[in-house]
Amino acid sequence: LRENEEFTKVNNIATIELGRYEIETWYFSHFPPEYNDCVKLYFCEFCLNFMKRKEQLQRHMRKCDLKHPPGDEKYQCSTLSMFEVDGKKNRVYGQNLCYLEKLFLDHKTLYYDVELFLFYVWCECDDRGCHMVGYFSNEKHSEESYNLACILTLPPYQRKGYGKFLIAFSYELSKKEGKVGTPERPLSDLGLLSYRGYWTRVLLDILKEHRGNISIKELSDMTAIKAEDILATLQSLELIQYRKGQHVI
Ligand code: ACO
Ligand code: ZN
């Protein structure tokens, strides 16, 4: 935006159509200028290209030959599938995902260089194809040990445990790499709630079974959760004390 243009003058997209849902948006997302006069956008649920009119989408759907996200299937469990999409090979898809995510997230600059990211797209599959329910992005080489940049569950699919699954998946990737991981900051309220829930469950499961001494470092090695996040979680649960210069669980 140029200095003399104001954000508030630009109408935001109020609803989107995606697959079989019409979804009300939550926040402002900065779409390309030619969409400034739109209050509703029509997304192709497979390639995530967006259009101004229903007829354009219908025409697109007759041509679009994708039936799942443009990447490799990495994990499958009954009718659910995880696809890994490389932002370098699928730049437009990655960008579309960022536009979409921003509609449900009020902070963060999401228009990053998508080439540097992998996108893990979680789908419910049926005979019509694999329908995206959520995703997270993962920086290929993070210097800050981030294992997740952004996470989204589409509103019609929220509160079904998919967020928790995506978070768990990001830690499994870290374990495979033999690294610890942490989500990129800042976290949204719902993001923090989901992470606190995940960290609490994972740590309490271990502490419940464990006999004898255990250090935060050991917990971190077992879970791939970064030491700072373990400390913060245990502190919020009032399970930790600071004695003689040491944290004691
Ligand atoms: N109100 C209260 N609690 C909620 C709500 C809600 N609206 N939504 C989820 N929760 C709780 C659940 O009860 C659950 O709690 P528990 O761990 O105690 O059982 C926890 O949050 C996770 O619930 P899930 O069903 O696993 O998560 P969901 O699929 O709904 O996705 C997510 C969570 C991804 C944060 C979703 O709310 C979302 O996409 N929000 C918009 C985008 C966003 O804020 N992303 C996070 C930004 S931070 C970052 O990207 C690093
Ligand atoms: Zn398409």
TrEMBL record:
The active site is at E184 (proton donor/acceptor). It catalyses: L-lysyl-[protein] + acetyl-CoA = N(6)-acetyl-L-lysyl-[protein] + CoA + H(+). One of its GO terms (biological process) is regulation of transcription by RNA polymerase II. Residues 8-249 form the MYST-type HAT domain. GO terms for cellular component: chromatin; nucleus. It is found in: Nucleus. GO terms for molecular function: chromatin binding; histone acetyltransferase activity; transcription coregulator activity; zinc ion binding. Its EC number is 2.3.1.48. It comes from the Eukaryota. Keywords: Acetylation, Chromatin regulator, Metal-binding, Nucleus, Transferase, Zinc, Zinc-finger. Belongs to the MYST (SAS/MOZ) family. This is Histone acetyltransferase. It comes from Lithocarpus litseifolius. The chain holds residues 66 to 314 of 314 of the full protein.
